[in-house]
Design brief:
globular; two-stranded antiparallel ribbon; alpha+beta
């Protein structure tokens, strides 16, 4: 029987307070992410009861409705119902945004700017892992055109990140995204990039300053586009409308390119270094950091706060070529798989087993966690304990045997190629098995106790 996506979308919109309470909607792999004017108007308990809705989460400045793999179809119907998508500018959206806390606004910004590229980053990691493995086996010549073509596909997203982020940042800050993308492109233009090497002394307009490289970074372009959004609004207020088409982009680039190179870049470099140092301090003793990330990174994902952590992990990975938080944090995903398997094996409730089986399948295949988190873990706090214990066990193995990752990728079978190049791959597999086994065992005991009561 065909699903009625239209009715599902209209019911969700109605229970969220109607069109007048919704600024916009975006979606990820399994969730609809709404920006509401007033989250208190949302009928959360009613939304949870809607057939087709797997769960609800209100965090990071977004009201998230978990749909599952049909989210794309439901999203289309929500937009057809009159809700603006993430690229639409509502004229009255500024006031509700101003009422949000600074943390909520920051989380919303990071989510909107970064989330479109997470699947691309994961794909790049898979390609990089496969070609590295083939090269190490002698199947592919690392100097040949075939290897270099795939290497470019895997690494161009990191090198040209300022261009991509410039575009989505422009959309978020409500300035011309094409101009902001050109701003990002200017910063990584090869001739200019070769002259701007972090830590070197350079001169511009007769002024000496310490340069900061922009390739692979995210903080400088975000700050630059934020400044440019205010500059663009100011120019539109003072320039006659007849010349705005040409002179607003011209003046934005003429002012922002040198300003970013001379001021925003160096300031951002200091800020990025401080953030990176604070993050890497967690892994001065890898055992401690890995256990913490193994145990709690999945909780960070559940709260929607991972968007503020992933850019830092990517920056550290690009800087030093390896990163512990990604490999240890991924153990939480596998622990969630173990929790779902434990419920599948131990529960006597047919509907619960069905949800657990479906959640386990998508988690094992592609690392999608929402069905398991909201369909199983959120139903009882004891499952959260099972999840944390299993993740910590896997993180313990990662930390004990010093197993960082050298590629970014999701967990799951489809992304496994990215991890094949980990120097201690057998130990990484052992950590995965331990995470799944421990969380599965604890989850089975938990399920039996819950249903016995």
């Amino acid at each position: 029987m065909a699903k009625d996506y239209k009715n599902l979308a209209e019911t969700i919109v109605s229970d969220l307070g109607g069109l007048e309470n919704i600024d916009q909607v975006i979606h990820c792999a399994t969730r609809l992410r709404f920006q509401l004017k007033d989250a208190k108007k949302a009928e959360t308990e009613e939304i949870k009861k809607i057939p087709g809705v797997l769960g609800v989460q209100n965090s990071g400045g977004q009201y998230q409705v978990l749909i599952g793999t049909d989210v794309g179809e439901v999203f289309d119907e929500v937009v057809k119902a009159g809700v603006a998508d993430g690229g639409t500018d509502f004229s009255d959206a500024e006031e509700p945004e101003a009422k949000k806390s600074l943390i909520d606004r920051f989380m919303t910004m990071i989510s909107e700017v970064m989330s479109p590229y997470i699947p691309i980053l994961a794909t790049a990691g898979i390609i990089g892992g496969i070609i590295s493995l083939l090269a190490s086996m002698g199947v592919m010549n690392s100097e040949g055109l075939t290897y270099q073509a795939f290497y470019a596909a895997a690494n161009s997203v990191f090198y040209f990140f300022p261009i991509l982020l410039g575009f989505t940042a422009g959309k978020h800050f409500k300035c011309n995204p094409y101009v902001s993308a050109v701003l990002g492109a200017s910063l990584v233009y090869p001739n200019l990039a070769n002259m701007i090497v972090s830590g070197t002394q350079v001169q511009m307009f007769g002024i000496n300053f310490t340069a900061a490289s922009f390739s692979g970074t995210f903080i400088p372009i975000l700050l630059a586009v934020w400044v440019m959004s205010h500059l663009e609004k100011g120019l539109k207020k003072v320039l006659p409308q007849v010349v705005q088409f040409t002179f607003v982009p011209l003046l934005c680039l003429a002012i922002m390119v040198p300003l970013t190179i001379m001021v925003i870049g160096p300031i951002s470099g200091v800020l990025a270094t401080a953030i990176s140092a604070a993050y890497k301090a967690l892994f001065i003793y890898p055992l401690i950091g890995c256990v913490l990330f193994g145990a709690f990174f999945i909780v960070i994902i559940m709260l929607g706060l991972h968007w503020s952590v992933i850019p830092i992990q990517l920056a550290v990975l690009a800087e030093q070529g390896y990163e512990y938080g990604l490999s240890a944090g991924g153990m939480g995903n596998y622990a969630l798989l173990g929790v779902c398997l434990g419920v599948l094996f131990a529960s006597k409730n047919a509907k619960k087993r069905q949800v657990a089986g479906s959640a386990a399948f998508v988690d094992a295949l592609s690392g999608i966690t929402e069905p398991g988190l909201y369909g199983i873990v959120m139903t009882n706090k004891r499952y959260l304990i099972s999840l944390i214990v299993g993740g910590a066990a896997g993180g313990l193995i990662i930390g004990l045997f010093d197993v960082p990752t050298i590629q970014f990728a999701f967990s799951g079978i489809l992304s496994f190629g990215a991890y094949l190049t980990i120097p201690k791959f057998p130990i990484y597999i052992t950590a995965i098995v331990v995470s799944i086994a421990v969380s599965c065992a604890v989850s089975m005991l938990t399920t039996k106790r819950i249903e016995a009561k």
